[in-house]
Each structure stands twice: as C-alpha cells, then as structure tokens.
Specification:
alpha+beta; Uridine Diphospho-n-acetylenolpyruvylglucosamine Reductase, domain 3; 2 domains; three-stranded antiparallel sheet; flavoprotein; BBE; FAD; oxidoreductase activity; FAD-bd_PCMH-like_sf
Length: about 325
C-alpha cells in the first residue's frame, strides 16, 4: 500500500513501486479549520500549504507559513515535526513528527500551532556572477549563514545563467560544494496549480536529449539556525535543526556518486539505501536510517516494532522493525 497526500516526493516513493501495489490517496481530505483565539488549526492531510495560507484569516494577524505553495501539509508535519496534538501516546507522537508518518500508519488530520510573524517583513535578493566573485561569497555564506541574527534568514541559490555571448557560465565550480546527487521526480503538470498562482515549470530528472527545455540546474542552500537551532537534536526525529543542508536540482545524473553524504528526510535520496523489506530489512534500513536520523534512528525502530510489528506500513525508505 502506498499512502499519498500530494505526491511531493523527489523519488516518487508514494506512488511508484517495483511490485504491484494500490494507492490510498488523501487528495480529497483538504478541510482547514482555524481557531484564532487558541492560535491553532485542524488541517486534513490532503491540504496544500497554498490552500492553508489562503485559508488563514487575512484581517487580523500574519501567520508563519512556507515558501512552496504546493506542498501537502502532511509532508511538512511528518518530515519536519511541526504539529501539536498528542492523543496517541508520547512515543508514537514523537515518531510521526519528523520520522515520516507512513512508517507508522495513516494520518488523516493534524492540529498545528500557528505562529505569528510581524505584519511587515523585508525581503531582498542579491545576484552575483562568477566574475563578481560569487565563489568567495558562497564560501563566506557557509561560515555565517546559521550564525547571523535570528531575525535574518539568508538562503543561497546557485543557478546556471547565460552570458551576453550566449555561452553557459561554468556551474561546476560551485556544484563542487554540493555532495547531493540529482534527485529524480516524475512531473505532475496538471496538479500543481493553485488558483493560477504559478505558471512556472520544473523537472526533477529527465532525458536532456528528449527534454531540451529542462536544461536548468540549481542548488538551494538553507541555513537551519534561529529558533530551530534551539531545539534539542532528540526533541523530534528531525535532529538536523543544528546544521546546514543542501537541496540540489539538476538535469544531470551520476554527478556525485561515491561521496559520503547525509540527508534530511524532506530531500529524499534513494542512493543512501533502499529497503527491500525482506529478511534483511533492519540491516538495509539501518544504512539510510543512520544517515537521516542519526542517534534518533534506534528509538524510531523500537517504536515501529511496538506499533507495527508486522511491518505493514512500509516503503523503500521506511523505518524497519527489529529483527526477531
């Protein structure tokens, strides 16, 4: 069984398999109920962040949301650990808030805590080319990005651009800083619009010869400092609040094979390891599990073994059970 809310999975784990399967699709579960006095909201698993943002009251306060309007709320809650309701026991609640809910069951709604932000937020963008010393700027950013004032968020994006002569500038110098290989993803062209809010098109993977429009490459670097850095690495399975991770999007594959690397569950990478859910399930799961969850992996396995000893809820990178 594959559990899909929005299908926002770089490796297609929620809707692709090597064996016959069926999909439990949460697409129609999109209800959003906001309690202003309590500063909380009940959100069903199929709602997108764009729908959630639109559903928030406009005339009273400003609320923290996200930069990607087509993500399903379930994806954010279960991968990064943002939710408040605990009616299932401390261990299981801890596990699904950052450990990936599809390893433990089917979740149809969440109660989340709303966080107020100032009515006015300043946003700016500074662009630099290699000729303008961009390589050194990238290096300097790595030294300070997660240490600057908590009210300042500096995200780094590196893109291919064209010179005035029409020649592509070399991106390889910058991509050497990134150890993450191309992430493959099947595009959903008809499902990504929200009230015509976007008309851009992107690809994750693909054949460059057959898909000549998909020639862009980019790397996004997000510093996880500020409030997130105050959270203990064991407070949620999402232990990586203290550190900097990169998301690489490129039409090229095989660029970074052989490099040691780690991952954040949101940026799924099957090259870290695949679980075939057979007799070696635990050993296979440990390979990618340690890379993603570090010291939290063992606790996730113990909880999984307790609540789903038969490993019914599983996928290519799910939490395994302990071997008998």
């Amino acid at each position: 069984m594959k559990i899909r809310s929005g299908g926002h999975d770089y490796e297609g784990v929620s809707y692709v398999s090597d064996v016959p399967f069926f999909i439990l699709d949460m697409f129609n579960l999109r209800s959003i109920s906001v309690d202003i006095e309590d500063e909380s909201a009940w959100v069903q698993a199929g709602a997108t962040l764009g729908e959630f943002t639109i559903g928030l009251p406009r005339k009273q306060d400003s609320w923290l949301s996200c930069w990607c309007n087509v993500l399903r709320l379930s994806w954010l809650m279960l991968m990064a650990g943002f939710s408040t309701e605990n009616s299932m026991g401390e261990d299981l609640f801890w596990a699904i808030r950052g450990g990936g809910g599809a390893s433990y069951g089917v979740i149809v709604s969440y109660k989340i805590k709303l966080v107020q932000v100032p009515a006015t937020v300043t946003v700016f963008r500074v662009a630099r080319t290699l000729e303008q010393n961009a390589t050194n700027i990238v290096y300097q950013w790595q030294q300070v990005a997660d240490k600057v004032d908590d009210y300042l968020f500096i995200r780094l994006t590196m893109d291919v651009s064209l010179s005035s002569s029409g020649q592509t500038l070399p991106l390889e110098l910058l991509l050497r800083l990134c150890l993450i290989e191309t992430l493959k993803y099947s595009p959903l062209e008809e499902e990504i619009r929200l009230s015509e809010g976007t008309n851009s098109k992107g690809w994750f993977g693909g054949d460059m010869e057959e898909n000549d429009r998909a020639t862009d490459a980019s790397s996004d670097f997000n510093p996880y400092g500020g409030k997130m850095a105050e959270i203990s690495p064991s407070a949620t399975p999402f232990h990586t609040a203290q550190g900097t991770y990169a998301k690489s999007s490129s039409p090229q594959t095989g660029m970074r094979k052989g490099f040691p690397r780690e991952a954040f569950l949101n940026y799924r990478d099957l090259d870290l390891g695949i679980n075939h859910n057979g007799k070696n399930s635990y050993l296979e799961g440990r390979v990618y599990g340690i890379s993603i969850f570090k010291k939290n992996f063992n606790r996730l396995v113990r909880i999984k073994t307790k609540v789903d000893p038969g490993n019914f809820f599983r996928n290519e990178q799910s939490i395994p059970t302990l071997p008998y």
